[in-house]
C-alpha cells in the first residue's frame, strides 16, 4: 500500500511539474467553460423571457398596430424599423414584415402573407419558439376579426373599428413550472461548466495519464520499478491512483473556481457542491484505469496522447458535454446513455438542474464504478510491468 | 539549394514513415465533423423527437378530445405524446420526457362556463430547448381555445346546460344550436378557412426554411472548414516542433557542422512546415469533398489552402522562435492554437460568434481562413471574393515566417539554439 501511494504521489508531482499539463489541467477547462458559457448565454434563447424580433410595419393601420401590440404581449422584444431603414439595419436576428395594405386586405377576407426572415446563424430552436409566439399573435388578431365580424353581422367590417381595440384576456391559460427543486436549465454556464469539467477530467487522464505511462514503458522505467521492492499489484494500483490523484486535484480546483465564479458573477449554477464533488470524484476514479489502459496499449507517448485527445473529444461530444443531448436524434441519445461521459452528465444534471441529492445520482455512479472496474481488469491484463 | 532540398526531403520522408501521426491529425477534425453531422444533420428526415406526457385529471369528453388530439394525430411532427396516469409525475421527475401536460379536474366545466381555465405544464429542467418549444406550442393552442370559447360563448353555455341537465338533450335544441354554429362559421368563413393571415419563414441568405432541418452535407459544410483550419494549425505545430526536437536531440548541431548554412537550414524548415501543413490541409479538403462538401472553385480553394498554410506555418514558427525549450514551445503554441480556435470560429461557427469577439477573431488565422471558405461555400463566391482573405493570410503569414526565421537564425548564430 505504501508503495502504491508513493508511485501515485510521484506521478502527481511529475504532472504538476509540467507547465503544459497545468494548462490542460486548470487553464483550458476554465477558459473553455467561460467562453462557451458566454457565447451560448449571448445568443437569444427560447428560455429567455423576451426574445428579440425586428418588425417592419409597411402598413401602420389599426390592424397592423394591433398585431404589433399582440407580438409585444406574447413576450417578444419588438424593435420596430421604418421600411426605409430596414435594408441598411445591422444586428437583426429575425425580421417580420407586415406588408402594405395588410389591414384593408384581411378585413376584406383576402389572404395576406407575413414574411419572417431569419438569420441563418441563429439557433433553430430559438427560431421555432419565436415562430410559435408570432403564430399565437396572428391567432389573436384573427380571433379579433371574427369577434368584430359577429358584432357587425351582415354589415361590411371597417378597419377603423380596430383603432385602439384591445382583445379581452385569454380564458385558457398555461401554468408552467419545472420538475425538481432547482430548475436551472442547462444553458450557458449551467451547461458549459459541468460539460467542460467532465471533458477535461477525461482529457487529462487519457493524454497525460496515457502518455506518461507509455514514456515510462518506452524508457524502461516501469521495468526498473518492477525490480524494486514493490509488487506488480502495487505498481498497477499506483498508476491508477496517480491518474486519479491528478483528476482529483483538477476537480477540486475547478469546483472551487466554479463556486468563486458563482459568488462573484452570480452565475446561474446551483446544486450541492459536495454532491457535485462526489460525482466528479467517482467519475475521475472510473476513467483513471482508461488512462492506464491506453498507456499500456500504445507504445509511443505522443501517439498515446494523440489517441487520448481523439477518444476524449469523441466521448465528450457523444456524451452530451458539448450540447444539450435532447437536441440530437434518439439513437445518439441512447449512445450517450451508454457512455461514462453520458452517465456523469446525467448525474450532474440531476444535481444542478433537478436540485436532487447525492442519492439521486447513485444509479449513474454505480454504472461509472462498474465501468471503471471492467476497464481496470482489462488494463491489468494489458500492462506488462516486468 | 541542394542541402535545402535534402532537408525538406528528409522531413517529408519522416512524415511519410509515421502514418499514425498523419491519421490522428486528420482523424480528429473528421471524427468531430462526423459527430456534428450525425447530431445535427437530419439527412432530409426529421431527427428530433419531443416526448410529452399527458395526465387527464378531468376525464371529460373535451379533455379526452384534447389529449387524444395531441396523441393520435397521424402527423404530430416531432411530438411523441403519451397519455399516462399519475406515474407521469414520477416520470417527469426522473427526466424521462421533455414535458408533462396536466389537464386538471374541472377544466372542461370552466371552459364551457366561460370561466378562466388553466392547463398545467411541468417541464424537464435538464433540457434546454424542447420543454420551451412544448410551452410555446401549448400557449398557441390556448389562444385558439380562448378564441373558440369567446366566439361560441352562447352555444358553449347552452351545451354546458344540456350536459348538466338530468334529462337527455332535446333534439330540436341540438339542431337549433348546430344551425347557429354553422351560421356563425359561415359569417367568419373568409377569415378562418383558410386563415386570413399566413406566415412564411425565409432564411436571410435567400433560401426557404425547411422543416426537415439541415442535411448532413450542410452541417459538414458549416463545421468542417473551422475544424480543418484547427487541424492545419496542429499540422504546423507538429512540423515546427521538429525544429525544437532537432535542437534538443543534437541533430541541429550536427547538421550545422556539415556544409549546411543557417539560412539554408531555416529555408528548408520553412518549406517543410508549409508543405506538410498544406498537404495535410489539402487532404482534409479532399476527404470533405468526398463526403459531399462543395468547397467552391478549385482556384479559390487552392489559394486559400496555400495562403492559410503559409499563415499557420508563419505563426507557429514565430512562436517557436520566442521560446528556448521544447516544453515551453509546446505550452505556448498550444495556448495560441486553442485560443485562436475558440475565438476564430473553429469550435463555434463564425455566424454564431458574438459581435464583441469579432475584433479579436480577426487577429487569428482561423477567422480569415474559415471566413474565406464560408464565402465560397455558403455565399457561392468565386476567386475574386476571397482575395481579401488570401491577401491577409499570405501577407501576414510571409511576414511571420520572415520574422520567425530571422529570430531563429540570430539565435542559432549566437549559439542559443
Write out the strand line-up for the largest beta sheet of chain B, numbering strands in chain order.
2-1-3-4
User: Roughly what is the average pLDDT of chain A, rounded to an integer?
Assistant: 88
Task: Tell me the helix content of chain B.
Answer: 55-70%
User: For the report, how would you describe the main beta sheet of chain A?
Assistant: 4 strands, mixed
Gyration radius from CA atoms of chain A, angstroms:
29 Å
Q: What order do the helices and strands of chain B follow?
A: HHEHEHEHEHHHEHHHHHHHH
Number of helices of chain A: 14
**How far is the N terminus from the C terminus of chain B?**
22 Å
Task: Briefly note the structural class of the backbone of chain A.
Answer: alpha/beta
Low-confidence stretches of chain B: none
SSE pattern of chain A, N- to C-terminal: HHEHEHEHEHEHHHHHHHH
Shape of chain B: elongated
Strand order of the largest sheet of chain A: 2-1-3-4
Count of β-strands of chain A: 5
Strand content of chain A: 5-15%
Domain module count of chain A: 2
* Coarse morphology of chain A: elongated
Summed up, the helix count of chain B is 16
Number of strands of chain B: 5
The N- to C-terminal Cα distance of chain A equals 19 Å
- What is the gyration radius of chain B calculated from CA atoms? 33 Å
Amino acid at each position: 500500500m505504501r508503495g502504491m501511494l508513493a508511485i501515485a504521489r510521484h506521478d502527481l508531482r511529475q504532472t504538476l511539474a509540467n507547465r503544459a499539463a497545468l494548462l490542460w489541467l486548470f487553464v483550458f477547462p476554465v477558459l473553455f467553460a467561460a467562453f462557451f458559457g458566454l457565447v451560448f448565454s449571448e445568443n437569444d434563447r427560447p428560455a429567455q423571457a423576451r426574445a428579440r424580433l425586428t418588425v417592419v410595419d409597411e402598413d401602420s393601420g389599426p390592424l397592423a398596430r394591433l398585431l404589433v401590440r399582440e407580438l409585444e404581449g406574447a413576450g417578444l422584444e419588438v424593435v420596430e424599423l421604418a421600411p426605409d431603414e430596414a435594408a441598411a439595419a445591422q444586428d437583426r436576428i429575425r425580421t417580420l414584415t407586415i406588408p402594405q395594405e395588410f389591414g384593408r386586405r384581411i378585413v376584406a377576407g383576402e389572404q395576406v402573407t407575413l414574411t419572417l426572415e431569419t438569420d441563418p446563424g441563429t439557433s433553430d430552436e430559438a427560431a421555432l419558439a419565436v415562430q410559435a409566439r408570432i403564430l399565437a399573435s396572428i391567432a389573436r388578431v384573427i380571433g379579433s376579426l371574427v369577434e368584430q365580424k359577429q358584432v357587425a353581422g351582415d354589415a361590411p367590417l371597417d378597419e377603423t373599428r380596430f383603432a385602439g381595440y384591445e382583445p379581452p384576456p385569454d380564458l385558457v391559460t398555461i401554468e408552467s413550472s419545472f420538475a425538481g427543486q432547482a430548475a436551472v436549465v442547462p444553458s450557458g454556464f449551467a451547461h458549459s461548466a459541468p460539460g467542460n469539467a467532465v471533458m477535461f477530467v477525461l482529457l487529462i487522464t487519457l493524454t497525460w495519464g496515457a502518455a506518461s505511462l507509455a514514456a515510462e514503458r518506452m524508457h524502461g522505467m516501469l521495468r526498473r520499478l518492477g525490480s524494486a521492492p514493490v509488487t506488480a499489484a502495487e505498481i498497477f494500483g499506483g498508476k491508477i491512483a496517480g491518474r486519479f490523484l491528478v483528476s482529483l486535484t483538477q476537480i477540486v480546483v475547478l469546483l472551487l473556481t466554479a463556486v468563486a465564479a458563482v459568488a462573484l458573477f452570480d452565475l446561474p449554477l446551483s446544486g450541492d457542491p459536495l454532491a457535485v464533488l462526489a460525482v466528479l470524484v467517482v467519475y475521475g476514479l472510473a476513467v483513471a484505469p482508461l488512462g492506464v489502459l491506453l498507456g499500456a496499449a500504445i507504445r509511443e507517448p505522443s501517439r498515446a496522447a494523440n489517441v487520448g485527445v481523439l477518444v476524449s473529444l469523441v466521448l465528450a461530444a457523444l456524451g452530451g458535454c458539448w450540447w444539450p443531448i435532447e437536441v440530437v436524434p434518439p439513437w445518439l441519445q441512447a449512445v450517450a446513455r451508454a457512455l461514462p461521459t453520458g452517465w456523469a452528465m446525467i448525474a450532474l444534471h440531476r444535481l444542478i438542474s433537478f436540485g436532487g441529492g447525492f442519492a439521486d445520482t447513485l444509479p449513474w455512479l454505480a454504472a461509472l464504478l462498474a465501468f471503471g472496474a471492467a476497464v481496470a481488469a482489462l488494463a491489468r491484463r494489458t500492462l506488462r510491468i516486468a | 539549394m541542394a542541402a535545402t532540398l535534402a532537408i525538406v526531403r528528409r522531413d517529408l520522408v519522416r512524415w511519410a514513415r509515421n502514418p499514425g501521426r498523419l491519421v490522428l491529425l486528420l482523424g480528429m477534425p473528421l471524427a468531430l465533423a462526423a459527430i456534428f453531422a450525425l447530431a445535427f444533420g437530419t439527412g432530409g428526415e426529421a431527427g428530433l423527437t419531443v416526448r410529452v406526457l399527458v395526465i387527464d385529471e378531468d376525464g371529460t369528453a373535451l379533455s379526452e378530445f384534447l389529449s387524444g388530439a395531441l396523441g393520435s394525430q397521424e402527423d404530430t411532427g416531432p411530438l411523441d405524446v403519451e397519455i399516462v396516469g399519475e406515474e407521469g409525475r414520477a416520470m417527469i421527475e426522473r427526466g424521462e420526457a421533455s414535458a408533462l401536460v396536466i389537464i386538471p379536474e374541472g377544466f372542461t366545466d370552466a371552459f364551457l362556463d366561460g370561466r378562466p381555465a388553466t392547463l398545467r405544464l411541468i417541464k424537464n429542467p435538464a433540457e434546454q430547448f424542447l420543454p420551451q418549444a412544448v410551452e410555446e406550442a401549448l400557449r398557441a393552442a390556448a389562444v385558439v381555445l380562448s378564441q373558440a370559447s369567446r366566439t361560441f360563448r352562447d352555444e358553449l353555455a347552452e351545451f354546458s346546460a344540456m350536459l348538466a341537465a338530468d334529462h337527455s338533450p332535446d333534439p330540436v335544441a341540438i339542431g337549433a344550436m348546430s344551425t347557429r354554429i354553422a351560421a356563425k362559421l359561415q359569417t367568419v368563413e373568409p377569415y378562418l378557412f383558410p386563415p386570413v393571415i399566413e406566415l412564411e419563414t425565409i432564411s436571410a441568405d435567400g433560401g426557404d426554411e425547411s422543416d426537415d432541418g439541415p442535411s448532413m452535407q450542410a452541417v459538414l459544410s458549416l463545421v468542417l472548414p473551422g475544424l480543418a483550419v484547427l487541424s492545419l494549425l496542429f499540422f504546423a505545430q507538429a512540423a515546427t516542433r521538429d525544429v525544437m526536437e532537432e535542437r534538443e536531440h543534437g541533430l541541429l548541431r550536427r547538421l550545422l557542422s556539415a556544409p549546411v548554412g543557417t539560412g539554408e537550414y531555416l529555408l528548408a524548415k520553412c518549406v517543410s512546415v508549409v508543405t506538410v501543413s498544406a498537404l495535410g490541409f489539402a487532404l482534409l479538403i479532399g476527404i470533405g469533398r468526398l463526403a459531399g462538401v462543395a468547397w467552391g472553385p478549385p482556384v479559390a480553394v487552392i489559394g486559400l489552402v496555400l495562403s492559410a498554410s503559409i499563415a499557420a506555418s508563419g505563426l507557429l514558427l514565430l512562436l517557436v522562435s520566442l521560446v528556448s525549450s521544447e516544453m515551453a514551445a509546446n505550452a505556448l503554441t498550444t495556448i495560441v492554437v486553442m485560443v485562436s480556435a475558440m475565438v476564430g470560429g473553429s469550435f463555434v461557427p463564425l455566424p454564431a460568434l458574438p459581435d464583441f469577439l469579432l475584433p479579436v477573431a480577426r487577429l487569428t488565422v482561423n477567422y480569415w481562413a474559415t471566413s474565406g471558405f464560408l464565402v465560397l461555400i455558403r455565399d457561392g463566391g468565386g476567386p475574386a471574393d476571397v482575395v481579401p482573405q488570401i491577401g491577409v493570410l499570405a501577407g501576414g503569414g510571409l511576414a511571420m515566417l520572415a520574422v520567425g526565421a530571422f529570430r531563429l537564425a540570430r539565435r542559432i548564430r549566437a549559439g542559443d539554439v
